[in-house]
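Narrative of activities, Objective 1.

The group set out to show that a structural description can be obtained from nothing but a protein's sequence at a throughput compatible with the screening campaign. Below is one input-output pair from the validation batch, recorded exactly as produced.
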Amino acid sequence: MRPIRAACLGTATTLIALLAGAPVTAAATDNDSAHAKGGDRVITVIGHLAQQTRYPVNPNGPAAQGDRTVVRSELFDKYDKKHVGWTHGTCTTTLAEENGGVEECIVTYVLPGGQLTVQGLVFGILTNGQPTLPPPSFDNAITGGTGKFDRARGQVHADTIGPGKRRFTIDLDR
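Output recorded for this entry:
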């Protein structure tokens, strides 16, 4: 299959992308939320799309089940000032409806002190058969980690806040 470069931020940004991590230094800041006071750690980072490539099943046709997106993002602290890590991930279209659609995404967040793995579904990826702009918000599960994030669990919530830019709220269960 021949790669097609996408100019917009895909839902894979992760995750996607895919979807941002939990730095262990001053790179990201815990939120003082009721949830965090219950023993969880809530961290906010900003993701900037660095590279995105789509591998369509039908290169010159409509979106189809099996289309894949490979994505990489640069992560910054919640103030969008200090670089704190990266995301690397893939999303596969599992339902290609003209207005709707679903992708299943797996994304790894590379952070100071370790990595987090995140996975889940992203709904509403297509509008009139084209990628939804801005990409939809999503919640995906934290399925594990390495280093300081060994045995990590929780979830990541993502919101688009600008062209090629997402805010990731990471809720680590402790």
